[in-house]
Fold:
Amino acid sequence: MTVFDAIQDRTSYRGSYQNTVIPREDLIKIMEAGLAAPSGCNTQTTSLIAVNDPDLLRRLHEVTGLPAAATAPAMICVLTQAIVAYRDRCYNVQDYSAAIENMLLAAVALGYESCWYEGQITDADAIGRKMADILGVPADYELVCFLPVGVADQPVKRAKKKPFGERAWFNGFQAGDD
Amino acid sequence: MTVFDAIQDRTSYRGSYQNTVIPREDLIKIMEAGLAAPSGCNTQTTSLIAVNDPDLLRRLHEVTGLPAAATAPAMICVLTQAIVAYRDRCYNVQDYSAAIENMLLAAVALGYESCWYEGQITDADAIGRKMADILGVPADYELVCFLPVGVADQPVKRAKKKPFGERAWFNGFQAGDD
Structure:
């Protein structure tokens, strides 16, 4: 699948998943894609845990409370470390976001759907920390996101986006789009 | 080019660029890839300005102070708006990072090199605001990153990364990588 097709085909899938076993090699390919993303001053602040053990998935979804995502036969958990990269700044949010986007594209290219679940686990409810505890993640890593991975069991819908000319221009703000 | 090839071929290129004109259609394709990235609750917080006007590029690089990047025949400037997406949270950093990664992959697929310049323009020197002023960007948008786009004129080097097993595991923190 070409880059452009994967980019356009990717959606945030929130339906249920088929009970298809995901080959371990596919999860490795998806994680390799994530780790290949750039990071501020090459600090490589992002780490990943693929979960395909059914009992562990069940325990994790007891805390996520997301029934549709819980049907996915695998998930990838995204860990981040706040490491200073440039002057006094950390770019770990940018780093893991680029890694997540790579993984979403890789998943699409392998025939899977996924969804970027971050806000639901990083807000005041601290679900990400509960997931991290289940996975034995030390306190200096934050579990900020999980990506279910599986074959869609329901129709895949595409988010409606604003027209190109409302968000992109040439040679100046709102100066022209073609 | 496949997704996986583009992901592995992408590098942060900091050399000089050939004086090749970039077709407008290629800049549009790259920006379309950026706008197709997901955003928190579909808030679409990222906007883009492609710059290929030589005089405007010269003026922008007077403030960036990056001689190698200044040889690129085009750049894409990334704008963001802090829009609340979920509860009281903004995910605009995540949004523009995913958009940037898509654009870097699209550039590679079209035969170009680029580099994610963010820290250099968003720190205390406020170079991003000076660039925004040149482009007529209003105060409620922040110019957080620019991507030079062009054909490499020097060898492309790849950043050295840690081995897979130091950053990715299955079913638990550092539990195993295969």
In short: Strands of chain A lie at 46-51, 74-80, 84-86, 89-90, 142-149, 168-170. Residues 110 and 151 of chain A are 10 Å apart (CA to CA). Chain A touches chain B through 79 residues (CB under 8 Å). The radius of gyration of chain A is 17 Å.
